[in-house]
Design goal:
alpha+beta, FAD/NAD(P)-binding domain, Flavocytochrome C3, Chain A, domain 1, eight-stranded mixed β-sheet, five-stranded antiparallel β-sheet, 20 strands, 22% strand, globular
């Protein structure tokens, strides 16, 4: 450590150091401070929230007061079984010990958050969950960093923004703190932790080197939904011998429309606790349609287009207007290889009519709302154009001439019954009946990675021998390697693992 100390400009001492200021890290900090210890949170960005603040804000949990109020009978055992159904073929990779921790503690986490001033709408159903379990935060996901920071400040938690975790201080077999990079002052900061360090840096969806190492070159070039998720927690722990799990486990990347950046009206609402009580009261007396309308607005600005658009006859083109793949085979990686990594969906009135009502939706938040073609036309006209002629419909595409030629070629394939370019089958009805539609641009991204540091049920990080590394804990997507398919489970794990890791770390002496 001599060379490191020579570069350090500041030294701080605390009981617990939390690296990462997202949902897991903030929960860990508040929980540890509730045990009466000193806590410092380091966050590399200039604001708190992480991926949690970018989410819809739903928490899937069982045995909550919201369920009881609606007469919903649930159990941890039932949630555990339903999670396995969601996981499908990936279930064999899941850590069942940690899954049991989550299902048994998720309800307590919701009640803990309520004690900090949070309120939720629902719970909402999401099959194959057998009962409604999705609790939707009021008024928006920015409530999480706002109220958790507020609770932490009341307990004396210190927040270091623009401080990036660089390496762990590992001496005589113990983690004794970490060296941070103060990005604004361009200097190193040594933080000694008398009790423990908690890594809550998120996943590695934005890290090209880790995706290259554990996935593939194709996936390495695909950006993460949250580009700040660079896997720093994984890397720092691996440098001192931590074991990782499920690093190569992934599902296909997501595709999402790129719309003009703008805040939704509910994201502009202030998050003061007494105002949240007012919003919660309004959620009980206002018509349910008001909240479904809001959910539709979220879906059209952040939702992923349904693959059924291609199955029913839509085609994909790049910025040159050319098709580049068989649309019926996973198009995510082919999209990432196109110029600017972008694509457009083209279809005619037959597809549009079908996607105007259930069960044909363009995007969904299961159990809450479904967005159809008319929702997109109303909410995001910048990503959908239509016209009675193809020339009118493609006016916002970068290469209208190329796109029109591609549509003519595809319609020829439909007439002869064979896709001579990509052997797609079935071809659908072609793009022949007005009005015609173009949606886009859309890009491919990795929503979340599964792999994490191997931890036990006390959230201690394990070394290669399988024994805990003294003084080191992990929470959220940095630790555990859980699969967590289905909406609301990632946030449930973030807050539950953070809350419990903070409590455990505060007791470490």
């Amino acid at each position: 450590m001599t060379s490191n100390k020579e570069t350090v400009k500041r030294e701080l001492i605390t009981d617990v150091l939390v690296i990462g200021g997202g949902g897991a890290g903030l929960s860990a900090a508040v929980s540890a401070s509730e045990e009466g210890v000193e806590v410092i949170v380091s966050e590399k960005c200039n604001s708190l929230g992480g991926t949690t603040a970018l989410s819809i804000g739903s928490i899937t949990a069982c045995m909550t007061s919201y369920q009881r109020k609606k007469g919903i009978i649930d159990s941890p055992e039932a949630l555990f079984e339903d999670m396995r159904v969601f996981n499908g073929d990936l279930d064999r990779y899941d850590n069942k010990e940690l899954c049991w921790v989550l299902v048994r503690e998720s309800g307590n986490t919701v009640e803990w958050l309520r004690g900090l001033g949070f309120e939720f709408f629902g719970p909402s159903p999401e099959p194959p969950h057998r009962v409604p379990r999705m609790h939707n935060v009021i008024p928006n996901a920015w409530s999480y960093p706002f109220l958790l920071q507020r609770a932490g400040l009341k307990k004396g938690v210190k927040f270091l923004l623009n401080h990036k975790g660089e390496r762990l201080v590992f001496e005589e077999g113990f983690v004794k703190g970490a060296i941070l990079e103060d990005k604004r002052a361009n200097q190193k900061v040594m933080v000694y932790a008398r009790r423990a360090v908690i890594l809550a840096c998120g996943d590695f969806s934005g890290s090209k080197d880790l995706k290259q190492r554990y996935y593939s070159s194709d996936l390495a070039r695909i950006p993460g939904y949250n580009p700040e998720c660079q896997g720093e927690g994984h890397k720092m722990a691996m440098e001192i011998g931590a074991r990782v799990v499920n690093m190569g486990v992934y599902e296909r990347p997501n595709i999402r429309f790129i719309s003009a950046p703008k805040k939704l009206w509910h994201e502009l609402l202030p998050n003061h606790p007494w105002l949240i009580k007012v919003y919660a009261f309004g959620s009980q007396i206002l018509p349910e349609g008001v909240f479904k309308r809001l959910a539709n607005r979220i879906l059209t600005t952040r939702g992923a287009p349904n693959d059924a658009l291609y199955r029913e006859g839509g085609i994909l083109v790049n910025t040159f207007g050319n098709r580049f793949t068989n649309e019926l085979i996973d198009p995510s990686i082919p999209i990432s290889k196109q110029p600017e990594g972008r694509a457009y969906i083209v279809f005619d009135s037959r597809v549009a009519k079908r996607f105007s009502s259930w069960p044909y939706f363009i995007s969904t938040a299961p159990g809450i709302a479904y967005a159809y073609i008319q929702d997109y036309e109303r909410d995001v006209p910048d990503i959908i154009t239509k016209g009675e002629t193809l020339e009118e419909a493609v006016k916002n595409h970068p290469n209208p001439t190329g796109l029109i030629k591609t549509v003519d070629r595809y319609n020829h394939f439909v007439k002869v019954g064979r896709d001579e370019d990509f052997e797609r089958w079935p071809l659908g009805g072609g793009i022949m009946e007005p009005p015609f539609y173009v949606m886009g641009p859309a890009e491919c991204y990795i929503g979340v990675t599964r792999g994490g540091l191997d931890i036990n049920d006390r959230f201690q990080v394990l070394g290669q021998s399988g024994k805990p590394i003294p003084g080191l804990y992990a929470a959220g997507r940095t630790g555990g390697g859980l699969i967590l398919n289905g909406h609301g489970l990632n946030l449930s794990w973030a807050f539950t693992s953070g809350r419990l890791a903070g409590k455990e770390a505060s007791k470490n002496i």
